[in-house]
Amino acid sequence: MPIDSRLPNFRSLSPAQRIDHLTTLLKLSDQDQQLLRNAGALPLEIADGMIENVVGKFELPYAIATNFLVNGRDVLVPLVVEEPSVVAAASYMAKLARAAGGFRTSSSAPLMRAQVQIVGVTDPYGARQRLLRSKDEIIALANSKDTLLLQLGGGCRDIEIHTFEQSAVGPMLVMHLIVDVRDAMGANTVNTMAETVAPLVEKVSGGKVRLRILSNLADLRLARAEARFTPETFDTAELKGKDVIDGIIEAYTFAAIDPYRAATHNKGIMNGIDPLVVATGNDWRAIEAGAHAYASRNGHYGSLTTWEKDKQGHLVGTIEMPMSLGLVGGATKTHPMAQVSLRILDVKSAQELAEIAVAVGLAQNLGALRALATEGIQRGHMALHARNIAMQAGAVGEEVDWVVKQMVQARDVRTERAGALLNERRNK
Ligand SMILES: CC(C)(COP(=O)([O-])OP(=O)([O-])OC[C@H]1O[C@@H](n2cnc3c(N)ncnc32)[C@H](O)[C@@H]1OP(=O)([O-])[O-])[C@@H](O)C(=O)NCCC(=O)NCCSC(=O)C[C@@](C)(O)CC(=O)[O-]
Ligand SMILES: NC(=O)C1=CN([C@@H]2O[C@H](COP(=O)(O)OP(=O)(O)OC[C@H]3O[C@@H](n4cnc5c(N)ncnc54)[C@H](OP(=O)(O)O)[C@@H]3O)[C@@H](O)[C@H]2O)C=CC1
């Protein structure tokens, strides 16, 4: 159902009013509303079924990033995160991106790699040829275990043999199963296939199979997003948009050449992506591992985004990175809030979800670069973090807003200052 994700007053509402607004906009069911009102509603019995030794639940804020326009479709993006200013920055940059059509995205097929490690091979190149000659038999065996996936149009498509002639333990071959996992993240799916083919692989190669596990460097499962911005987008009373664009490109260049900066730059990108991964019940460690390995693929650790100027002087931002997200499998179906998130996003495939995730990453990166290249990160970030600081100092109810206002006005956001302000107010 088409919606308008541009919700200018959403930030000023209370959480209860925001849920009412979403209910009207998205026609949320009574059950979804109820789940949102009990924020994070995860019955202990379900939690106990998800992991081991459960003794409770740990809740995090669940928010909605507004303004996203992705391939011409308005999307509201659920984000689960503890850090202030992330949701605001993503929403802000999505708002700016709308002027030039929002985010345009694409993705490759959902292909995952499973690795089968083969040791004890005396003739690695001969073994490689034998395995490649047996490709059809290996693929057929891999596919014999998951008929549902085949019916859905997925399954093992190909094999690759990676040869390590020298290693500390002698020659090593690594066979990759290339598997189309459709709408699953696919870890369990491909691990089962890798274990299934291991005896055949041993017979054909003459070696011993050890590890049979997916690779989180999902470099065949890439999602991409692009956005453009006119210089006027960044005009302010003090700054010319053209200079802001130059500052953003210089900031990006810093990340492209210096791994110390690239780590922080990419952390900013993951500020947007991880909260969506968590909100949809997906495996954020897998996404993090894939992101940073991909950022190192050219022999040095670099930026996951690029920022450049087109002929008209418009800022052009792009992102491309592995994105192994599922709509089924893992906790996506078990966690009730993950299901609410998927309904809010209204995505039809794991690829669509992956493309929205990288669009949020690109927006988040721009939010940080724009702030860093102009006024610095502290004004916007600390103004929002000030609420945390006030609460840490013991402020409750109306005291919170009052303490925040004093600290932001004085540009002095510290717990000690919040405590002093609180004492001053209480002793009046
Ligand atoms: C924080 C802002 C957005 C303020 O920026 P501002 O100019 O004060 O915002 P504004 O009040 O003019 O509002 C503009 C829009 O921002 C959004 N917005 C604004 N405030 C809110 C709010 N309270 N709640 C919800 N949405 C908010 C909202 O969309 C709003 O438009 P509207 O829809 O209202 O017409 C800006 O300063 C900013 O983008 N800063 C960057 C913040 C950031 O990057 N945070 C990430 C954490 S820092 C970090 O971990 C990463 C880092 C920085 O190290 C990465 C790196 O180094 O690359
Ligand atoms: N290194 C890593 O990242 C590792 C991660 N994991 C964990 O693995 C989990 C994800 O594994 P995953 O294989 O995705 O999950 P599941 O095994 O839970 O679910 C995948 C299964 O769902 C079924 N299915 C139903 N509909 C579809 C559809 N439209 N598209 C694709 N499959 C469908 C498939 O068939 P059927 O049910 O018939 O099999 C498929 O095998 C996560 O919890 C992750 O944390 C595990 C090991 C390592």
TrEMBL record:
Its EC number is 1.1.1.88. InterPro entries: HMG_CoA_Rdtase, HMG_CoA_Rdtase_bac-typ, HMG_CoA_Rdtase_cat_sf, HMG_CoA_Rdtase_CS, HMG_CoA_Rdtase_NAD(P)-bd_sf, HMG_CoA_Rdtase_sub-bd_dom_sf. Pathway: Metabolic intermediate metabolism; (R)-mevalonate degradation; (S)-3-hydroxy-3-methylglutaryl-CoA from (R)-mevalonate: step 1/1. Gene3D superfamilies: 1.10.8.660, 3-hydroxy-3-methylglutaryl-coenzyme A Reductase, Chain A, domain 2 (3.90.770.10). It catalyses: (R)-mevalonate + 2 NAD(+) + CoA = (3S)-3-hydroxy-3-methylglutaryl-CoA + 2 NADH + 2 H(+). PROSITE patterns: HMG_COA_REDUCTASE_1, HMG_COA_REDUCTASE_2, HMG_COA_REDUCTASE_3, HMG_COA_REDUCTASE_4. Pfam families: HMG-CoA_red. The keyword Coiled coil does not apply. SUPFAM superfamilies: NAD-binding domain of HMG-CoA reductase (SSF55035), Substrate-binding domain of HMG-CoA reductase (SSF56542). The keyword Oxidoreductase applies. GO terms for molecular function: hydroxymethylglutaryl-CoA reductase (NADH) activity. Keywords: NAD, Oxidoreductase. PANTHER family: 3-HYDROXY-3-METHYLGLUTARYL-COENZYME A REDUCTASE. Belongs to the HMG-CoA reductase family. This is 3-hydroxy-3-methylglutaryl coenzyme A reductase.
